[in-house]
Write a structure and sequence with these properties.
It contains 28 helices and 7 strands. It is mostly helical. It has a 5-stranded antiparallel sheet with strand order 3-7-6-5-4. Strands 1-2 form a two-stranded antiparallel sheet.
Length: about 750
Amino acid sequence: MPKEIAVPDFKPYIPASAVLPEFTLRALIMGVVLGMIFGASSLYLVLKVGLTVSASIPVAVIAITFFRLINKLGGKDSTILENSITQTAGSAGESIAFGLGVTMPAILILGFDLEISRVALVAVLGGLLGILLMIPMRRAMIVENHGVLKYPEGTACAEVLKAAATDSSRAAAGESSNPHAQDEAGKRAAIIFGGFAVGILYKVINVAFKGWKDTPEVAFGAPLKGGSMGIEVSPELLGVGYIIGPKIASVMAAGGVMSYLLLIPMIKFFGDSLSVPLSPGVKLISEMSPHDVRSAYVLYIGAGAVAAGGLISLLRAMPTIWRSLSAGLSGLKKTDQSGAPRTVEARLRTDQDIPMKWVLIGALSIIAVITFATPLHMNLLGALLILVFGFLFATVSSRLTGEIGSSSNPISGMTVATLLFTCLIFLIMGWTGGQYYVTALSVGAIVCIASSNAGTTSQDLKTGYILGATPRLQQYAILAGALSSALILGPILLKLNDAGTVYVPAAQVAPSLMTDASKLTDTAQLQGPQAEQDKATYKVWHKADAVGGPAGKYLVDNAGKAVYLVDPGINGAYHKRPDGTEVKKYDAPKAVLMSYIIKGILDRQLPWTLVLFGVMIALVLEMAGIPSLAFAVGVYLPLSSSAPLFVGGMIRYLVDRRNNKLEQNKNLSEEEQQAAGDSGSGTLLASGYIAGGALGGIVIAFTAGILTDFDKKLGDWATANNPFFEGINADALSMLPYALIVLGLFWIAREKNKPVA
């Protein structure tokens, strides 16, 4: 009999000897599709606020629901192992979206184009590499440390799947039929689908049909001149705030309060009397709006704080990093912790991985593709750095995810560290040209995605370990899910950027700006709504300095005269097209940080004084015992983006405070109460809000370029006739529909008292 390598007193829900349908085509397809959907919504979130939330539980609930529907229509119901495969394949999109959104928009900020081939390569190679690097560590982290590494999201997801297990799955597990399982699953499904419907309907009426003002705000005069407050009344940010909880949400909002009610008013107070522009600003502070002050000065302070916070979180985790690396290396040995040989032959179904030879071949093939892929501008040194940092941080991410969960995993800090070391090595080598911007960012992006996906993979394998799934089949599923999501997220990223791109007439920002057109080879036409008025073809000029006009991408005529400044949708500065149409931009806070690191080290072109101010803010917070990274992201983000996170966090606080006093919860440990809240009705509704609102935002962004005339006419009508959209009472009135979804979240999240027998 083969010896099962496992914790002696642990038995999976489905025993290794049981034979149930698992890796079926319908389970895989559903997982892939759900991964794309939640990946798209996660990409939207990370571009707006630099955050994503785990998609595992919502994907599991939706999978259960669809398979139950198929069963009612005469088809075969799913097994718990099929649901596990769907959940595994569907979870990959969120981690890849995070890595893409954190890194690739920096290409735009550095003045280059978001080429589809480059984005797709980074997403595919990083996603697959992270999974392959995790596979050899599964036994060491998931099996041998089952009682040590909790993997909170993976464990919670397993409990959700067990609660909804079908009769065939319960029979295989040796349990009696549960007549209430289907009802409970139906209630969970109704909550998440109801949240999705509310989220997308709310977003469409609010933004597409100009139902009410989407960002109510108020500006202050003396003595707080320059100060302002606002809130984006969106369902997706409310949902994110609920899921991340009151602590992180409050700290992030506090960072926004510092920016908008302290730093900006302070800069206005001291700078209003200046008679010359204060670098890096290009106009008088007295002529600047609060938004201008934020763009010129506060963003650099926020970037310094984010960089310092990321590195501090990484340094704080160094003991764990060392243990993680040791555990990862021990996982490659031929014996387990007890000294027993890890035999390859005759393993139990629940202990089968993808064969190591295929893992090695796959990883080496990925490194080879990275080395020779032209769009990445890679060289051998860059590929070696990816291999070293990729293995290091994939190991660290997998273990940290087991200890503290995905939401607290400092992936941003790992990416910052990768870029810092990479750029310093490049600087020593004398590689400081624009080409090496792309090389350094490609290194950071692939390592970021690999680390993020390694953590997600470990969560999924933990879910499977608890349920009794086959690891090898789970690994195939997440490889398929990662590949599919990676291929679709690149085009979505480009479309979101194109939808918000503004072609600013050069005469407004850089009159008489000229260059030598004979040296320019690339050409381009206007894209989107403005293309209707100008169908000419121009030469593309990537201007790296600020002499004569802002740095950035310009379209110039054949004589070399600048005609348009191309302001991107991601981190762009211009929110109106020449015809007055409003354009939604994406702040992409962490991508901006990556661009600052690359440009600051390779070209030394950062306003280091402002950056160091941010570093000092982070250090002061850490000395006071406050997590600086969340606060720093709040400093960087608009207060209108962090305020709804605070609202969601406060709803979670009130709900948890009430629910924890109920009979069924009052005797639970703090950790168990947290887990109950993470899998409760409020989290499901919040997940629905997030998916519906974010997907609604994506669809609206895509259609804005097609229905431009309709959008403008509707905006003009709403401005003139809709008091919820424009007028002296619009800010207050727009809070009424928002209050409805806030109250709905609070009401649904409240549990009923269930006396313990």
